[in-house]
Write a structure and sequence with these properties.
- By secondary structure, the chain is an alpha+beta fold.
- It has one domain (about 5-140): 3-Layer(aba) Sandwich (Aminopeptidase), CATH 3.40.630.
- It has four helices and six strands; from the N terminus they run ααβββαβαββ.
- The chain has helices at about 5-15, 25-30, 75-90, 105-115; strands spanning about 35-40, 45-55, 60-65, 95-100, 115-125, 130-140.
- A six-stranded mixed β-sheet has the order 1-2-3-4-6-5, with helices on both faces.
- Strand 5 (about 115-125) and strand 6 form a beta hairpin.
- The longest helix is centred in the middle third of the chain and has 16 residues, at about 75-90.
- The two termini are about 25 Å apart.
Amino acid sequence: MLPADLAQVHALETLCYSSPWSMSSFRYELENRDAILLVALYGGRIIGYVCVRTILDMTHLLNVTASPEFRRQGIGSILLHDAFNELKKKKPGAKITLEVRQSNAAAISLYEKFGFRVTGNRKGYYQKPDDDALLMEMTLTG
């Protein structure tokens, strides 16, 4: 992800989420040397992105998003695969955590394919609509 991508990334974020990140949140992550931000392109258009950040010894999957018309076509898997490969170079054996809406079965299934397991939940974590969050984690290997 480059600074020139931020307008498209933010537009996609706003399209996909009821409580989207601000443009300044994306700028902050882009400037963070411990963050990995990647985009998926189709015909020069950003159709997905992923944001992963490491703080000390903990890595957090902040966001993975695919444009609605490109969902269930492997965009999220490709983004996660590429981000995790980059992370392996920087932090071999990293432990990765995330939160996901309890009602988002497709996302949960994707994360489980990458080896994430549910470790807990947070009641009332999400709004618009209200939902609990599942906490998931995995350790990078190989």
